Amino acid sequence: MTSPHIGSDAAPDQHASTAVAVAAEKRWALIVGAIIASILAMMIFTGLHYAAMPPSRVETVDVKTLHIRGEFVENNLGTAVEAGGKVVVRLIAQQYSFTPQCIVVPAGSPVTFRGTSSDAIHGFVVGRTNANTMLIPGFVSTFTTTFPKAGEQLMPCHEYCGTGHEAMWARVQVIPREEFMARAKGAERLSCVPR
Ligand code: CUA
Fold it and tell me: Are residues 29 and 81 in the same domain?
């Protein structure tokens, strides 16, 4: 390599540096092209995959008749022990509260939550447990979890739903299973909302 003089003998150097720059540009163009191509390929794949195999277990519910008929009418909300001993909690979220405001569940056995929203998108998480879901108008959210130990947990709304969002929360009382079953005998639907 010749030293980079300025003057009449600088021309070959300039050619060399131009060649280096062009090579670098080409390399980058290839890398960027490959990134764009892989993103497009991903979009096409996920689009086709979704169209070919739509998500299963999607349950819809009519928001307009939520309070009139179906499983989310007011006297069906709360915790129920269903045939076969399955524990199911049904709840509704609305701006800015949950119904019921206090949920009671047994410790150490599986609890299935079924919930929906009557207005905006809400969500909840129970304390530091893995009980966590979004509640979307028109859809039923469901999951099953087990609370290992008894105690009271806070259940805040965790999807921004309007000006009252930060004041939207309920309580979850996890009680020993025997106590829960004794209480469940006397009631169709359990909750710990004071009467
Ligand atoms: Cu409901 Cu945030």
Answer: no
d(CA 67, ligand 1 centre) in Å? 19
Q: 47 and 135 share a domain?
A: no
- Nearest CA residue ID for atom 1, ligand 1: 122
For residue 164, the CA-to-ligand 1 centroid distance in Å is 7
Q: The domain containing residue 159 runs over which residues?
A: 63-185
Q: Quick check: bond before 100 cis, omega within 30?
A: yes
The residues near 62 (Cβ < 8 Å, ≥ 6 apart) are: 70, 138
* Dist. CA 143–CA 176, nearest whole Å: 21
Quick one: 162 and 75 in the same domain?
Answer: yes
- Phi then psi for 74, rounded to 5 degrees? -55, -45
Chosen domain end from 32, 52, 72: 52
pTM for this predicted structure: 0.74
Establish whether residue 122 lines the binding site of ligand 1, counting it when its CB lies within 6 angstroms of any ligand atom. Answer: yes
Q: Residues 140-176: pLDDT tens digits? A: 999 999 999 999 999 999 999 999 999 999 999 999 9
Ligand 1 atom closest to residue 161's alpha carbon, by position in its atom list: 2
